[in-house]
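Same chain as my last thread, 296 residues:
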Amino acid sequence: MGAPRTLEHDEPLDEVDGELQHTELTLTAYSVTAPLAAPFTTARTALQTIKSDELALKNALILARALGLAADDDLNRLVDDVKTGVLAVFGGDYQAPLYKQLFAGQSPSELKRPLLGSQLATMRHWVAPLGAAGIAELSTLSTRLSAAVVKADDAETKMALAQQAMDVFTTGARATYINECNALRKLTFGKLAEITHVDADLPADFADRFFVTNGGSRARTIAELTQSVERLRAKLKRQESQLEAMKEKAAQQLRAKQEAELSERKARFEAAQKRAAEAAAEVAKLQAELEAGGHG
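reply #2:
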C-alpha cells in the first residue's frame, strides 16, 4: 500500500478529472467511505471552472498568434512591394540611398524571417522616408505600411498579453488547484489507511483501490492499459508524421530563401557590372577626348 501519486502541474485536466471521478465514485460505493466523497464532488465542480478558464485562455492565445501571422503576412508582402517599388523608381540601382537606408544590408528574405519582432521594428522606420520621397508610388507604399504597422503592433500586443495571461493562470490558479487536489488525495488516503487499520476484515489493498494509478484491485485492467498504450502510440505516430512534414516544409522554405538570396545577389552583381561598364565607357570617352585635345 502506497500513497497516491502526485498530480503534475501540467497534467491534462481531463486526466485529473478521471482521477477525481474514480476516487469520488469509489468512495460513494462503500458506506464506510461515503462521507469522504463530498470534497471530491466539490473538487470536480471546481475543475469545470478551471477547464473553462484554461480553454478561454488557449482560444485567446491561438487567436492572438493567428492575428500575428496575418499581420506578418501583410508586412512580408510590403517588403517585396517596397523593394520592387524603390528599385523601379531608381532604375534597379541597389546602391540608391533610399534602398540602402531601408534594407541596411539585409536581403528581403532575411528581413522576413522573424514573426514580427525585429522585422516590425525595422519596417516601422520605413514609413517616414517612403512618404518623404515625394514620389506618388512610394507615398502609396508609405500609407499601406503605416496601416500594416498599426495592425502588427496590435497583434504583437495581443500575443504578449495572451501569453502573459496564460502564464499567470498556469503558475497561479491552475497550480493552486492541482496542489489542493494533491493535498486532498493524500489526506483521503490517510483516512482510508486508518479505516483499514481499524477494520481487520478489509483487504490490505483497500486504500489503493480508490486511486486509479495505485495498482490496487480497482486499477485499470491489462486490456484497458493496452488500449491506452495503443492510443498513445497512434498519437505519437501522427505527431511524428507532422514533425517530418514540418521539417520538410522548413527545408523547402530554406531552399526558397537561399534561391531568393542568390537571385538578389545576382541582380546586384549584374547592376554593379552595368554601372562598371557605363563608368568604363565614360572613362574611355573622356580619355579619347583628352587625347584628341592633346593632338589638336
